[in-house]
Predict the structure.
Amino acid sequence: MEEKVLIKRLRSGDEKAFRFLVDKYKNLIFNTSLPIIQNSEEADDLTQEVFIQIYKSIYGFKEKSSLSTWIYKITLTKCFEYLRYKRRKKRFAQIINLFREDGTSIDVPDFNHPGIILEKKEDAKLLFEAIDNLNNEQKSAYILKNIEGLTYNKISKIMNKSTSSIESLIFRAKKNLKKYIEKKLNNKK
């Protein structure tokens, strides 16, 4: 279905058009959010939240960019909103733990990416841990380029930055990832 037709049908409340949109973009949204959220169930929930946001916001979509660019922007925004919420919740849990009489604490679950072969799980966990330590801009640019496989031009549109800024962000992200991973591996020895 042509993008302009899809947008028009979505704005008219066409249920089939919305189903088409979900089928077309659910993997893109899930695969973009999973490395950021690092939990497949939460990434799945976030995917649904993105579609709710698209449904609510389609009338405000100005069509200055492609639909997929707009969806990437919503996805990244929702991911980072979720992470901020999760950090606040974790800080609150730590405060609560200080006052628990039984001395128990709330544990943060380990992340296991569903697509990783068993013997590669440790490496994947280390990589995702390293990605999680990047700042939001570096993390977004790195994931969009190296996990989603987008071009620098497309990423620059999604992030509202110049192509050279995106190249610089990705370069710094790779440098920071390498530094983080080397430090972790050296600490294991």
